[in-house]
From TrEMBL:
One of its GO terms (cellular component) is ribosome. Pfam families: Ribosomal_L18p. CDD domains: Ribosomal_L18_L5e (cd00432). Coiled coil: none annotated. The keyword Ribonucleoprotein applies. This is Uncharacterized protein LOC101511095. PANTHER family: 39S RIBOSOMAL PROTEIN L18, MITOCHONDRIAL, OS01G0256600 PROTEIN. One of its GO terms (molecular function) is 5S rRNA binding. Keywords: Ribonucleoprotein, Ribosomal protein. GO terms for biological process: translation. Belongs to the universal ribosomal protein uL18 family.
Amino acid sequence: MVIPPPVRPPRITQFLKPYLLRMHFTNKYVSAQVIHTPTATVASSASSQEKALKPSLETTRDVAAAAKIGKILGERLLLKDIPAVSVHLPAVSVHLKREQRYHGKVKAVIDSLREAGVKLL
């Protein structure tokens, strides 16, 4: 059964930033996805669990893997003509969970997205 995305009133959608970056880190893997907020769908994603990426990574959970995931996600976003992404953290306008700081893996993903040519709002 397919659940349709929620319908939001047009008043709310004009204040939403269109693309939002979400990052998830576990003890084994790193993943990041960009969500199109008006339709609540995933626009693009990258993860260290992907079969095509595993051979090119030494480990799937360190800062180098996070940087690689950010680079690949940036390339995929540019292929889909998504030039800018909203990331919410206090210092860099990026909202993260309470335990996540702009440091380590988070910084690696965000910096590699910038290097790939994606603007952060």
